[in-house]
Amino acid sequence: MIQTKKIFFKDYLYVLPALVMVVGFLMVPVVSVIITSFSKWDLLHPMEFVGLKNYFNIFTDVNLLISTRNTLIWVGMILLFPMVLGLLFAVFLRNIWFSNQIKSIFYLPLAMSGTGIGIIWRWIFTHSGLLNSALAALGIISEPRSWLIMVPQNTFAMIAASTWQVTGLNMVLFLMGLQDIPAEIIEAAKIDGASGWKSFTNIILPILRPTTTIVVILNIIGSFKIFDIIWPMTAGGPARASETLAVSMYKESFGLFHFGYGSAIAVILSLIIFVIGLAYLRIVALEK
Amino acid sequence: MKKNCARKITIVSIVLILILVLSGQIFAEGAQEETEDMGPVKFFTDKPAWQTGWDAVFAAFKEETGIDVEMTGYTEIDTYIAAVKTGVASTKGPDVFTWWSDYKLQNLAREGFLEDISDIYASMPGKYSEGMLKSFSYDGKIYGAPVLVASWIMFYNKPVFEKYGLKEPQTWDDFIGLCETLKSRGIIPIGFTITGGWTSFFWFQQLLASNYPQAYLDICGGKKSWNSKEVEEAFLLWKDMLSKGYFSDPGLDLGQEIPPMFAKGEIGMTYCGDWFTAFFDQVDLKGGTDYSIFVIPPYKKGNKKTILYEAGPMSISANAEHKAAARKFVEFWLSDKGQQIFSDTMNFVSPNADVSGAKLDPVKKKVASDVFGDKDAQMIVRFWEAALESMTLPACAAFDKFVLDPDSYKDVMMELDRLSKEAWAEYNAQ
Fold first, then answer.
1. Domains in chain A, ordered, with CATH?
2. Which of B251, B260, B389 lies nearest to residue A146, judging by beta carbons?
3. CA of A244, closest CA in chain B: separation in Å?
4. What ipTM describes this predicted complex?
5. CA–CA distance, B390 with B401 (Å, rounded to integer)
6. What is the mean pLDDT of chain A?
């Protein structure tokens, strides 16, 4: 005899807190942003339905074209620097005796908030900052420079700050991947006469491919969302030249009170991140 | 029989409970009408750095009325504006909040979010200048009480001026002579910045308004095109000054880098609102000894002395939860006592004509006499309030472009004209 388990009303109560949180803090804001993206709203006047106008404006707005270009620079540079550095640090630190201490040092910036990092790095790049003092002491420059109002140097300055933060995470992820490589394979390669570089390119890198894919996707998502480092360093300026999509979304909404337009940017940005996130989940599932 | 009896008892009980609840509600409402509104007054401000001044006024207000004022300070302007704009639509927002004058205040007033306080002023005639109150008015009603009335003036390093025998300029040629002398001595003539996204309007407003005051007002008011010869002249003058090296690197931070460089004598002068003295305090500069002020003379000969000013008000939300207490607070704020306390604590010139400036430092006394006390001087509201709210930040981005590439001034003028037309079309359509 098959006994069907009777589900009581009180059973649903156990999931209620989680459900309320998800609906209240995720679903409601998402739906409200989508609705707002089809409207014109400045907080003071009633919301006015404008159809797809905000979405069409995204493709003709010069400022948005600049932020899209900057976002793509961010994605490219973050894939290049923190990822390569993270991999190199992981490989070199794997076998040295004080690696744990060094790993902690590299990992430390990740424990700090992006805004805090932005403030620290602003003071490195300002007119009276550390970089100008160092360059002047070395005789490289005679007059201090305001790196944060120089375009596009300011974007690269902010990418440097982000690299400092993200490299540690990438290193830890690669270290986890490296732990999965059996020592016997490397030993066998050595016996067969493979040099360190050959072992790295022909054995380590191919085995690390799943980890690399995850690191790439996480870094792409992080670059599309980047806001916290930019805001204290340049606030997207001068002349909106260092904005990324996330900064433009904030500035249009809370600086210019174009909440409809800001929401449309948010929807587009979320869709991009959603698609990349799906790819990430698929890769993780395939690995399993 | 028993069932019927029980039903009757239940119905009677429900009716009695309803009567009790409703009567309680009615009595409570009646009692509320009779009870005095004792606050607390919810006060929002974007100026939490003035905590000492606020605390002194709140304490005196509490002593006089027994009402507490609860302050919420915001350091991020965008967040503050959003908090106020969302808050004033309900009773959950601020009762009283600091704001900006002219179009920024009118934006809220015309949507009915502000409380008319004309009657409070009616009880204190002559204390506040009518010209300034116009900046807080919409449709003949006054919606703001002045918190800060600041003039935009040039600060100069006194020891540097004394060392090189320099005097406060009376004409534009004198002023340019000062810049040349300072430059020849290896001192940056003028501390200048475009950082922060809002600071690049300073010199544009000064150069246009002091030479063409009516054109400045018409352009800001949407009555005249930005593509005009007056704007072009202002840009060319600014471009000339930039090319001659009179300005510092525009990447300097307004509050963190200009004051220490000024204190060290690396910068000779800097132009800002008179609230800039708070930054000088942080680097231990003493007004009258270490620095003083002058009004920048106009380029055009024969023009009146023109001074840009900003008048920041506090307003009461029309939806204030404790409106009566809020009105009492604003009345106290405007009184001689409230203004005297704030002026003495903060070293600010009070806009109340009956408040003594005896405790002000020499620079602020000079501001009171040479700026606000000069009856021949022409006071014009600064660009931040004179232009539409939707125009100010995009215009600053356009001024940034000009500073980074002064040859682009014609493109910048076209962009400003387009921005202005769009902003006015939207404003008029609302």
1. 59-287 (1.10.3720.10)
2. B251
3. 15
4. 0.86
5. 18
6. 90
Using left for φ > 0, alpha for ψ between -120 and 50, and beta otherwise, residue B358 falls in alpha
Task: Please give the helix or strand (H or E) that residue A283 lies within, else none.
Answer: helix A259-287
pLDDT digits 0-9 by tens, B262-280: 999 999 999 999 999 989 9
Q: Does residue B190 surpass a pLDDT of 90?
A: yes
B404 touches A at CB < 8 Å: yes
- Which residues in chain B are closer than 8 Å to A62, comparing Cβ atoms? none
pLDDT at residue number A101: 80
pLDDT digits (tens, 9 = 90+) for B349-374: 898 989 998 999 999 999 988 888 88
For residue B78, the chain A residues in CB contact (below 8 A) are: 250, 254-255
Which residues does A contribute to its contact with B (CB < 8 Å)?
Answer: 43-45, 126-128, 144-151, 235-240, 250, 254-257
Tokens of residue A278, six digits = 């799906």
Check CB contact of B263 with chain A, cutoff 8 Å.
no
Cis peptide before A152, with omega less than 30 degrees from 0?
Answer: yes
Are the Cβ atoms of A236 and B197 closer than 8 angstroms? yes
The reported pTM is: 0.86
Q: How far apart are CA B96 and CA B318, in angstroms?
A: 10
Residues of A within 8 A of B398 (CB-CB) are 239
Look-up of token digits 């009004």 = B295
The reply to whether B401 touches chain A by the CB within 8 Å rule is yes
Cβ atoms of residues B394 and B419 within 8 Å: yes
Interacting residues of B341 by C-beta distance below 8 A, sequence separation 6+: B53, B56, B57, B60
What residue of B is the nearest CA neighbor of A154?
A: B251
Top CATH class, B41-149+310-372: alpha beta
Domain at B150-309+379-429: CATH architecture: 3-Layer(aba) Sandwich (3.40)
Nearest to A44 among B78, B107, B249 (CB): B107
Name the closest residue on chain B to residue A148, using Cα atoms. Answer: B251
Q: What is the mean pLDDT of residues A197-215?
A: 88
What residue segments make up the domains of chain B, in order of their start?
A: 41-149+310-372, 150-309+379-429
CB contact under 8 A, A43 and B79: no
Which of B79, B111, B256 is opposite residue A254, by nearest beta carbon? B79
Q: Which residue has the tokens 């029980």?
A: B6
B390 contacts chain A (CB < 8 A): yes
CA-CA distance, B414 to B395, in Å (whole number)? 11
pLDDT 10s digits, A244-255: 999 999 999 988
